[in-house]
Amino acid sequence: MTIISGKKREKIDRLAELAAREEERGVSLWQDAFRRLRRNPAAIVGAVILTIFVLVAIVGPVFVPYGPTDTMGIREGVVRVGQGLIPGHSAEHWLGYDHQGRDVFSRMIVGARQTLLVGVVATLIGLAVGALIGGVAGAAAGLGGRWGRWVDTTLMRIIDMLLAMPSLLLAVSIAALLGPSLTTVMIAVGMVSVPVFARLLRGSMIAQSNSDYVLAATSLGVRKSKIALAHVLPNSLAPVIVQATLTLATAIIEAAALSYLGLGNPDSAVPEWGVMLADAQPWLGIRPALAIYPAVAIIITALGFTLLGEAMREALDPKLRK
After folding, report:
1. Which of 158, 187, 258, 273 measures 20 to 30 Å from 118, CA to CA?
2. Nearest CA to 268 among 296, 290, 298?
3. Domain limits at 251?
4. pLDDT tens digits for 189-207?
5. Is 5 inside any structural domain?
6. Geometric angle at alpha carbon 285, from 169 and 100, rounded to 5°
7. DSSP 3-state of 146
8. For 85, phi and psi rounded to 5 degrees?
9. Is 6 a domain residue?
10. pLDDT digits over 270-318, tens only?
11. How many structural domains comprise the chain?
């Protein structure tokens, strides 16, 4: 576990160092990265997947043909679970019914919004807390002198302990302590990504602290707090933004895993892909498609975020460029 966490730290620190090195060339990092992304097929595919997903999540629930909680199949006698009858797709119900007689297509569309909400909020939680810790540590290490190095060492040892724990185990532990709910899933998944954001921003800020503009500002008598907040921090955010894109993919998968383990929203009437996947387990023998639909949706969405995030990382990393 120590070897794995050490490799993870080296990878994060390397990304931060390379991003800072590119800024020193005087090249607009984001303009150059965007130019490379437009020529990257993986980035285009990922962007298309994410565009469709976001549009479905935002606009789709307005146009669903049936209510996501309407048990019409039970009411009309079409779904008879006791007799092992859960009808599949038809002209009126494109993905069929679930075990409670609800329209699966409508629940998938509405569930996309909940899945997006969980992923985005969890990522924002990890980004906010991680950026706070990493920003303080990076500013202290780069500009704080002896006292700053002590603060940096203390904060990074705490972060290293969190990095040494498997992410899913840490998320399950937090969710078990807080109790099952959608808010719990967001907090648990968000806290898992805190160490990555913290160490990444800290490494980027330390690399930026050695830049010429920091030396010039220090020579002119600019306060170190102003240098850190107005100059070093804004120029250190590029690798953090890339990591946020990758974290969205893992956040969706980990949220689905927590829901599958019964630590997500206990109200199955609220459609969410992870909850739908968990609810489908008892009915795999009768209708396995109930689990296949949300599973495929989760995989494709995570793939879109991963493709775009990896393409952005490649565009920002000189050693990975072609």
Report:
1. 158
2. 290
3. 29-79+86-320
4. 999 999 999 999 998 888 8
5. no
6. 85
7. helix
8. -115, 110
9. no
10. 788 988 888 888 888 888 999 999 999 999 999 999 999 888 888 776 5
11. 1
